[in-house]
Amino acid sequence: MLFCFLIDSFIWVSAWDGLNVQADLTSWLAPIVWEGTFDPKLIDSIYKQQNITVATTVFALGKYTVFLQDFLESAEQNFFVGFRVHYYVFSDHPEQVPDVKLGGERKLTVMTVNSSSRWQEMSLGRMKRLEMLIESGLVNDADYLFSLDVDTKFYGRWGAETLGDLIGVIHAWYYNSPCVLFPYERRPESQAFIPYSEGDYYYGGAVLGGSVKCVYQLAKTCREQLDIDAAKSIEAAWQEESHLNKYFLYNKPSKLLSPEYSWDDQKMKPQEIKIIRFSQVLKNYAEVRPNI
Q: Which domain of life is it from (predicted)?
């Protein structure tokens, strides 16, 4: 959309000047959102004039419901504050979804799903559920959609600077690594296969987003590729994250979020990371994953 392109262009006019920071444009000239590359009040005001709705999905399956309280409470303090937001919480324990006080024009819908005995299945099923949610009418009810990991917490502002047609996040553990070290799926028999000679970034599966129509195409394509692998009894190295990286390799994101938007509480904050906005929280995987 021309309007979105103009907004992104404006953001990058105000990028850092002369500082030693990570790149703020990709090789295909998509913005990479870092602290200091946008005017938060201006960009929010532009999108508020459009009266947009942001849908947000989280998957709280099994014992992962324990993370919902912090996720939702911190989101209410930081995530698209002042915008219309609709949370969709997918859970096999709907009775455990906490009653969190939501701001005006913000609501939460619980989507009941079946349980799984493998944490990998929780990951593998996300694309199918996103596809079905959008087909059920979300395309008419929201303008943008973000799918976020539930075992996370917001520590800082997350606003309209993150909006665009197709949004990916640069993985916190690989943003300074050479492409050859990215944990792509390397087996040619998998639909997620990426050879060592290809690749741009390693994208984290904790965050994906964009316009509802663009996210639908991403989810549908990844679900189809996952189904092909499943029919051959193949499971990609990092489940749906591997397929997400394959999709982004050939369908370039229109905007990338820096690791500020998907950090990990296990990592020390280096100098170039000015702020941590959203992060994976510390956890004991043996306590929350069913098959470890």
A: Eukaryota
Number of Cβ within 10 Å of residue 265's Cβ equals 13
Distance separating alpha carbons of residues 178 and 189, to the nearest angstrom: 24
Annotated active-site residue in 76, 161, 241, 260: 241
Query: Taking a C-beta distance cutoff of 8 angstroms, is the pair 141, 169 a contact?
Result: no
3-state secondary structure 108-132: EEEEECCCCCCHHHHHHCHHHHHHH
Active site (annotated) includes residue 198: no
pLDDT along the chain (292 residues), means of 10: 40 36 84 95 96 97 94 98 98 96 97 73 79 94 97 98 98 94 98 97 97 97 95 94 97 98 95 95 71 48
pTM here is 0.90
